[in-house]
Amino acid sequence: MAKKYNHITIPKQLVNESGDHANTRRGRNIQNIPKLENVSAHKEHLSEGVNRLNGFQEEKLKKTGEIVEQVDMKIRFRGLANVGFLDRYHAKVYQRYDDRPDEQEYANDVVVAKISTIRPEGRTTSDYEHFQREFDTYLKTGKLKSYFDYVEDIAPLTLDEITEPELYKAISEDETNKQLVDVVFGSGPLTSDDELRTFNSLYSDDIVVAVDSVDMHYFRVEASKSSLEDMTEVFSGIVSVERAPLVVFSSGESKEVDEYDIDDNTDTNAKPILLIDSAINGEHPILKIAALAQQGDSSGRKDHGTMVGSLIACGPHISAKRQFAVENKVLPINAFITTPHGVTINEPLIEEALKNSYSKTRATIANFSINGYLWPMYSRRKVDKMSILFDEWARKYNAVFTIATGNLFQENHWPPEVEQELFSLGYPNYFMREETCILPPSDSINNIAVGSVVYGATPDSMADSKDPSPITRRGFLNAKHNYSIKPDVVQYDSNFDVQFNGEENGPYMAAEDGNLVRAAGTSFAAPLSSFALGMLAKKYPLYNANTLKALLLHFAEDLGTSKKVTNNDILHALVGNGMPDLDKALYSLSNSTSLVIEDSIQINHKKKISIPIPASLAGSSRLRLRVKTTLVYNPPVNSVDIAMYNPIVIAAKLVRSDGQDMSNFTTTKSKDGAHRKSNVKIYDEVTKSTVEHMGEMWSLEVIAEPCSKYMTDDITQDYSVIVTIEDMEQSDDIDIHQEINQMINVEVENSIDVTVEAS
Fold first, then answer.
1. Distance of CA 179 to CAs 106, 329, 335, Å?
2. DSSP β-bridge partners for residue 680
3. Which of the two residues, 550 and 752, has the higher pLDDT score?
């Protein structure tokens, strides 16, 4: 029987700076953009837009009496945004995204930008005057067509232009009725602090939530159409008006329990896992052991938080028939606000909890089993503001969130005709529809999105065992969004019969009334991954968030094929990297040993990390050596430009001791170059049967490149790598773990105690 060991952390002495790295990445090409069919009509259309732009600025001047120092506009390009056009007029970009239809081959980049009206010293014209003069030249002579022929629309940032169509329709039907909306200012440093302070002061009575972070600035306000028009006319930095995220909570029917037999296996030194959810019943026998004092409002509904909290504490092991244990401590945070319009999210309270939990050396784990329901769905061409915020938090606070992907048919305020269409398509065909995509903030790239697969099935069940749950949500079918593979992992959930009645065969949870309950939903899949991360953090308390995430994904088991979900693209978009194997993530074995690398790298640099390859894996003509590598990092996301949302590329390849490449910086696991631009890279396994170069130090070469002009060479990025070296024969006669340790100790001056056997 194979022995269990702790994973081996590669010492710093085996990580070497190997010099500068030349970035050979090529930019995107504009392809197949049709020529203008009617140039005159195009000029007329653009003229209307520019006239609207000028008229809006005049109205601003009348309303405020102040000089308009910048003209804010939305520019829709035919193709990729013309950088030369933007640079020519010194346009400062708030936001950029691709808004093409799915069937269109070429891009339709939308840019929200400002152009100054102030004449710089030494110049006779402002940037905006320069733009106007050259636009007039284009209209009269046709010159500059390489710029203006490829501009499809120009429009001012009026309320109708920046508001979601369905929301604009709703506020227009009753112009005096207030709705809960998010007023979003331009991302990053372009929005002034003075502007935000003034807005906060003017509308303080109507503001429910205010978010002012590095990448996102928005106010959740109760506002009517007329007040929104006032806001957009006065405040130039408002780039969108969106429905506020409202939340709903899944529930189930409890099962009476006579007596609990619960062990307390919690570690008093371990950090509690943040439960961002409803309030909880802290007197439930499970949570009485697991939960710390409730943060935030302790009143209101407690069922959802109680259920989720118990899964974080105990994982899938709760049973009414046998003894089980509480493994993780939980810090419950009721981060929601009840308004006349529904329950919404309290982002500042979440950040306060992250600040209090923050440590450079000990990661924070947080569970977020809530999604804001939105109709229509947020644009797949943009990353939602909350997803950006969660990405920022993960990096800033050494944190990793497990986030539910959202549920179908339970949390949606769809028009009835849409729901009918989906039902008529039936399982699994409705997953072809875009409405079934994951909900924010689960598309956050620095965190872990969790979908669900069903645990068991009967002849009457809709899905087979380990098939995607009928109510889970899928990730993206192409690389247009943020190049991430979502969901990251899946966990077990309940099944449904063909009439869409829940079969409730998923894990047991704590019920608000003190009993146990089963229920369906990705809300209850996410905490199973939080439980797993908690167990990893308890065993390896000094691993950072990148490493915990890497371990969970590295040891996720591919679920293979499905008889019912026969479209492999859809299946992959539903199950992501598969289901985590906690035991493998926790322990190395004598015939399968994992190396952990925690390091940082400067942009445009490369590193070489020594990887010991045991001599005992040579010998026969049969395949013996298998190496699997996973790399994870948490970049500072580019909230301005979705095409460069992850502005840093870090990649790795395995190189044999004689310099022969055993893998490549890229991989074949995903389409459209998504894997290269992803901050999670799970590389194809390397197998070897030759006796050559065994018992030698191979190397893992790591490179870092900028994907964006916003990145400078002085940026340093943390990253983590898991390298598993495995005996494919699974022999118990050799101990590659001990052999690897000996090879490491030879490479460093002092012996390093990395051989602690698991208890």
1. 37, 39, 21
2. 632
3. 550
Average pLDDT over residues 669-689: 74
Residue position matching structure tokens 């890279």: 681
Which of 22-26, 298-302, 658-662 shows the lowest mean pLDDT across its residues?
22-26
Cis peptide leading into residue 487 (ω within 30°): yes
**322 in Cβ contact with 300 (< 8 Å):** no
pLDDT digits (tens, 9 = 90+) for 392-411: 999 999 999 999 999 988 76
Question: What is the CATH code of the structural domain delimited by 247-584?
Answer: 3.40.50.200
> 504 vs 278, 500, 521, 584, CA distance in Å?
22, 12, 10, 28
* DSSP for residue 737: H
Considering the segment(s) 4-27+591-747 as one domain, its CATH architecture is Sandwich (2.60)
Element (H, E) at 414: none
> Does the model's pTM come out above 0.90?
yes
Instruction: Indicate where the chain has its CATH 3.30.1360 domain(s).
Output: 160-236
Q: Are β-strands 556-557 and 697-706 bridged in parallel, bridged antiparallel, or unpaired?
A: unpaired
Q: What are phi and psi of 295, to 5 degrees?
A: -100, 140
| The predicted structure's pLDDT at residue 26 | 46
Q: Cα angle vertex 464, ends 460, 468, to 5°?
A: 125
Element (H, E) at 81: none
Computed over every residue of the chain, the mean pLDDT equals 89
365-385 per-position pLDDT tens digit: 999 998 766 544 544 567 889
Alpha-carbon distance 410 to 520, whole Å? 10
* C-alpha pair distances (Å), 478 with each of 104, 483, 658, 673, 686: 13, 8, 38, 10, 27
Give the residue range(s) of CATH 2.60.120.380 domains in the chain.
4-27+591-747
Q: Which amino acid is present at 178? A: K
Cβ density class 455-493: b for 16+ within 10 Å, e for less: bebeeebbbbebbbbbbbbbbbbebbbbbbbbbbbbbbb
Which band of pLDDT confidence, cut at 50, 70 and 90, is reported for residue 672? Answer: very low
Which CATH code for domain 160-236? 3.30.1360
In the prediction, which pLDDT does 21 show? 76
Cα(759)–Cα(740) distance, integer angstroms: 20
Asked if residue 428 has a cis previous peptide bond (ω within 30° of 0), the answer is: yes
